Amino acid sequence: MRHGKIRNTGVDLTELGFGASALGNLYRTTPVEDALAAVDAAWAAGIRYFDTAPHYGLGLSEIRLGAALRSRPRSEYVISSKVGRLLVPNEHPRGTDPEGFVVRDDLRRQWDFSRDGVMRSMESTLERTGLDRLDIVYLHDPDDHWRQAAEEAMPALAALRDQGVIGAIGAGMNQAAMPARFLRETAADVVMLAGRYTLLDQSALDDVLPAAEEHGKSVVAVGAFNSGLLSHDQPAEGMKYDYEAAPAPMVARASAIAQVCAAHGTTLPAAAIAFPRTHPSIINVTLGMRSAAQVARNTALHGRPVPDGLWDDLRAQGLIRSDVPTAKGHGRSARCL
Length: 337
Known about the structure:
Blueprint: E1 3-5, E2 12-14, E3 16-19, H1 32-44, E4 49-51, H2 60-69, E5 78-83, E6 85-89, E7 107-111, H3 115-129, E8 136-140, H4 146-162, E9 168-173, H5 177-185, E10 190-194, H6 208-215, E11 218-222, E12 240-241, E13 244-245, H7 248-263, H8 268-274, E14 282-288, H9 292-302, H10 308-316
Parallel strand pairs: 3-4, 3-14, 4-5, 5-8, 8-9, 9-10, 10-11, 11-14
Antiparallel strand pairs: 1-2, 6-7, 12-13
């Protein structure tokens, strides 16, 4: 599998990454044997970048991912986690986590982007994973905490990076405007951009991608399927778009894109995975994976040829923005596996 390096760092990512939110029982229970099998399948497919967070299952994702990777050579993979949500005892548990994960709520999340909060969060992550270090640390959803995140958390991470404790630092968010500020105004090396550079949403062209180019920094793309609408060959009513029921005009647009994909001998989900990598600042697409079967499907989609002419036709028909960069082999994934 091809690799891409986070600019100005020594951190090298496979261009397809494993998102471990489902290992924390996102929306439904993931049996532990399925979680371990998913990581095994990803490893066998050549994936060497794995992303997790304390938020995912109140630490369950970190525990499971750490267990699955512990026997692997530590120098052969990159792991990222996140800070900003400390896990603290829940004084008033109600039985189940209210934030979408099927786990007990004996712990709760507490926002904290202070230097002390960063250090405590990282220490707890290392305890849960059983690993000796993290390669990338992101500030997790600091949308309502810009000042503390930029003035306390990011300098704390920068000091650890400069000491060689962390390989790269950044922020992960579901918007594009604030990640652009992190790239322009802080020591961040990389941002994890969720859903803002996809076949249905290219708003990142207005801010975060120009910022990455201008400052020589990198972007990891997540949410390539926009919550599911782009994950099937034929979009349908009732599918999700950005965590909610997809509006009819968006379903119609996805269907029109699917028709153009078919005319080029590819599929909507294969194109959705390939599209973010058409931009030179995006070095990786990370997909959430719950089972070995999902890994097999996603890696197969990633390996399908997506001709550059597809993007030209989508531009010409007004289905993607006219300022989407012209890919010269960058978006083609036939050689990846």
